[in-house]
């Protein structure tokens, strides 16, 4: 079965959770499902590699050969020689894997509806219109388009075609600095918060950072505002990271004066200002693990990472970890993949059936690969 969905279809089908998973995989005890999956995986040997993002639940994570943040996983996909890459992550990650691997390698997304709401906030046609308008105002090649990796393959291709690139939360400084060193203005899509936090850290003056309102005529920016800009931020955001509140952090500090707060840079700048540190998912894990001075932490990112880290580091490193808000930090579309999906995929592979293959169309692939490889070279 080979399917190709665009991101809005992914969003639509996310409403029919586990729609494609056969009933027989839903009725088994999970320990048995995991045992069967691991048995199938071991029979498939080196033909298969399983990559897992930190947001996966423990049971799905337990299948992984390698786990990490978006940059690490993209690098591993580009490096692996395995025939099948099973990506326990979301649609944009699996698309990046298909773009970065050879034509004879196959990327599989175990749950086809695993997506990213923010990626859906930047439609390629709308971004292209925006870039045309900015070019009209400031001149040809005045703007470098940079897309966060949480975006569709076609948006990455647009950036590749216009001398732009991709960034993740762990290399956004390097990438924005590269663009600034070229003396160019930047159009940053789709995450306004990662864009703003990175621009702030690079010392770009506030009045040079403008927001393009994707729902308004000409982004609701005048020609003068565009001419005065250094970076224009698409007004997309991650609904999960936008939910943390300043009061929640202040309350935590009141109850635990010793606590250190670390958040993902997809959070708004006000939340970063209330926090002690920020970092990608790998960055969060490393900062807490490596810290010898602080043992009590609060984390602002997806719940599975926080829960797993709390469990692992309380045993091995004697750390105490709190949620900033346990209720709001659940990302239902990122963490939707269950061990049942992985076992279903692996058992079918053993029988020669390739399910949930991710295929990026060739013309998009070529340009998106330029953008992604530029990012990998720059980081
Ligand atoms: P990382 O690259 O930090 O893992 O972030 C991925 C993501 O989607 C955060 O919401």
Extract low-pLDDT stretches: 1-18
Task: Work out the radius of gyration.
Answer: 21 Å
Largest sheet: 5 strands, parallel
- Ligand catalogue: 1,3-dihydroxyacetonephosphate
The CATH class of the largest domain: Alpha Beta
Would you identify the CATH H-level superfamily of the largest domain?
Answer: NadA-like
Strand order of the largest sheet: 7-6-8-10-9
Number of strands: 15
Kindly name the structural category.
Answer: alpha/beta
Please indicate the percent range of residues in DSSP E strands (runs of 2 or more): 15-25%
List the domain count as a whole number. 3
Task: Give a verbal description of the structure.
This protein is an alpha/beta fold. The chain has three domains: about 120 residues, NadA-like (Rossmann fold, 3-Layer(aba) Sandwich); about 110 residues, 3-Layer(aba) Sandwich (Rossmann fold); about 80 residues, NadA-like (Rossmann fold, 3-Layer(aba) Sandwich), CATH 3.40.50.10800. Helices cover about 45% and strands about 15% of the residues. The protein is built from 17 helices and 15 strands. A five-stranded parallel β-sheet has the order 7-6-8-10-9, sandwiched between helices. Strands 3-2-4-5 form a four-stranded parallel β-sheet, covered by helices on one side. The longest helix has 17 residues. The two termini are about 35 Å apart. The protein binds 1,3-dihydroxyacetonephosphate (13P). The site of 1,3-dihydroxyacetonephosphate has 11 residues, from loops.
């Amino acid at each position: 079965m080979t399917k190709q969905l665009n991101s809005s279809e992914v969003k639509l089908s996310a409403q029919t959770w586990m729609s494609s998973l056969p009933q027989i995989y839903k009725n088994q005890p999970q320990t048995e499902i995991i045992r069967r999956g691991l048995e199938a995986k071991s029979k498939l040997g080196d033909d298969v590699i399983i990559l897992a993002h930190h947001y996966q639940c423990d049971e799905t994570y337990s299948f992984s050969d390698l786990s990490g943040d978006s940059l690490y996983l993209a690098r591993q996909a580009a490096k692996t020689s395995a025939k099948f890459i099973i990506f326990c992550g979301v649609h944009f990650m699996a698309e990046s894997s298909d773009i970065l691997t050879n034509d004879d390698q196959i990327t599989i997304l175990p749950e086809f509806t695993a997506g990213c709401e923010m990626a859906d906030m930047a439609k390629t046609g709308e971004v292209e219109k925006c870039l045309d308008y900015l070019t009209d105002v400031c001149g040809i090649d005045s703007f470098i388009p940079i897309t966060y990796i949480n975006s569709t393959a076609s948006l990455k291709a647009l950036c590749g075609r216009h001398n732009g690139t991709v960034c993740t939360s762990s290399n956004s400084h390097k990438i924005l600095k590269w663009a600034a060193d070229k003396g160019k203005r930047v159009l940053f899509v789709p995450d306004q918060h990662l864009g703003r936090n990175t621009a702030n850290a690079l010392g770009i003056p506030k009045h040079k950072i403008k927001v393009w309102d994707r729902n308004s005529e000409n982004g609701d920016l005048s020609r003068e505002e565009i001419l005065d800009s250094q970076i224009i931020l698409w007004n997309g955001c991650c609904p999960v990271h936008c939910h943390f509140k300043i009061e929640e952090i202040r309350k935590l500090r009141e109850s635990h004066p010793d606590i250190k707060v670390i958040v993902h840079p997809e959070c708004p700048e006000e939340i970063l200002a209330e926090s002690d540190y920020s970092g990608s998912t790998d960055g969060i894990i490393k900062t807490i693990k490596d810290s010898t001075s602080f043992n009590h932490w609060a984390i602002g990112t997806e719940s599975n990472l926080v829960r797993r880290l709390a469990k692992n580091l309380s045993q091995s490193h004697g750390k105490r970890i709190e949620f900033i808000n346990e209720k709001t930090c659940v990302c239902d579309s990122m963490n939707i993949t269950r061990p049942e999906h992985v076992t279903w995929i692996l058992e079918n592979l053993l029988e020669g059936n390739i399910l949930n293959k991710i295929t990026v169309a060739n013309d998009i692939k070529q340009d998106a690969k330029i953008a992604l490889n530029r990012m990998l070279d720059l980081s």
